[in-house]
Amino acid sequence: MADFEQLQAFVAAVETGSFSAAARRLGKAQSAVSTAISNLEIDLDISLFDRTGYRPELTEAGTRLLRHAQSVLEEVNALHVDAQALNDQAEPRFSLFVEQGLMVPRMWDLVARIAEIFPTIELNFAHLPRPAIVSALRTSQVDLALITGADRMEGGFRTRGIGFQRLVPVCKSDHPLSVPREISRGDLKRHRHIVGPSGPDVPTTRRALSPKIWTVEDPQTQLECVVSGLGWAECPVDMVTELVTDGTLAVMEYAFEQNAILDTVGVVTSNKPVTGPVQNWVLEQLAHWDQKAWVGPPHVGRKQYSRTTPTSQK
Fold first, then answer.
1. Do residues 134 and 217 touch, judged by C-beta distance below 8 A?
2. Bridging pattern class, strands 157-172 and 182-183
3. By C-alpha distance, which of 14, 100, 97 is closest to 49?
4. Please, which pLDDT band fits residue 213 given cuts at 50, 70 and 90?
5. Other Cβ atoms closer than 10 A to 127
6. pTM (2 decimals)?
7. φ, ψ for residue 162, nearest 5 deg
8. Residues 121/92, Cβ–Cβ less than 8 Å
9. How far is CA 103 from the centre of its chain?
10. Which residue, 162, 159, 147, is CA-closest to 100?
11. How far apart are the C-alpha atoms of 176 and 191, rounded to whole Å?
12. For position 199, what pLDDT does the model report?
């Protein structure tokens, strides 16, 4: 059986590009790294690297097994993080606010893990419109917030980008803009655009594309206006996927740009020098998420979607 140090040497060699660089990363002699990898190959009875060239190159088998090795190391790291969290004295209270449109299933899983690992914590969890979260941040009512456009926050906050949210232009399936063709700017200007609030902290993707606008404070109200046939909007893909799939809403295809309207998703915390184990644990989990957590299923909003899906042609 492969041991932890062998897997660690293998992954480090791949990620750094050489055995010597892997040794520097791990703080070991190059001979120790080479020996660990050789022993791993013996244990697995597989050649992980082709050593005939100037630098060792991954074999096809090595490429396939690399994913498993990385997964094992990630699980071991998670074990140590959880153990550290259990050993440390957690904060008695912790506030976690998440912007509407960002509560994907993975976020619910994270909240469930907080309950499991920190069973005695008093959690203040809220799923709110962005303006409400920004206000809570400025009045120190929240320890950690997950919002769009975090990189534009100012005023003594720490921010870290962790992904992208995709917005999709939608209208009700019987709206004039639901026709199966590309929509021009002129087409949009003839119909009411439901937009979110404006201001220096608001993501630039939330723009008005029609002189006829209604302004709302949150994505849920925006979506309800669209479902009621009051106008069209660019909505978070995770909020509209089911409604597009069942034919309630139609995805519009822009003629003037790609439908992939992306905005940054990030974590915002206070700038205090000392943080507790709960906050550190949550940040550690989010740091390992891939950046596509909020881009939704690719078939919703992809070009030609409305032309190939019968329900969107109503």
1. no
2. unpaired
3. 14
4. very high
5. 16
6. 0.65
7. -130, 0
8. yes
9. 10
10. 147
11. 9
12. 55
- Identify the residue with better confidence: 47 or 154: 47
- Of the candidates 22, 2, 4, 13, the one whose C-alpha atom is nearest the C-alpha of residue 58 is 13
Give the tokens for residue 28. 């070991």
H helix intervals, 158-218 = 185-189
- The pLDDT value given to residue 204: 47
With a CB cutoff of 8 Å and minimum separation 6, the contacts of 17 are 55
- Helical spans, DSSP H, in the chain: 4-16, 19-26, 30-44, 60-87, 105-117, 130-138, 185-189, 219-227, 237-245, 277-287, 305-308
Task: State how far the Cα of 94 lies from the Cα of 90, in Å rounded to an integer.
Answer: 9
Identify the CA nearest to 300 among candidates 226, 239, 212, 213: 239
Q: 299: which 2 tokens?
A: 């078939």
Query: Does 275 score more than 80 pLDDT?
Result: no
Residue 312: which pLDDT band, with cuts at 50, 70 and 90? very low
Asked if residues 172 and 249 have their Cβ atoms less than 8 Å apart, the reply is: yes
The structure tokens listed for 12 are: 């480090």
Which pair of tokens denotes residue 27? 């703080």
Mean pLDDT of the chain: 85
By residue count, the chain amounts to 314
Residue-wise over 271-301: b if at least 16 C-beta within 10 A, else e? eeeeebbbbebbbebbeeeeeebbbbeeebb
CB 14 within 8 A of CB 27: no
The strand pairing partners of 267, in sequence order, are 146, 160
Query: Please, how many CA atoms are within 13 Å of residue 139, restricted to the half-sphere of its CB?
Result: 7
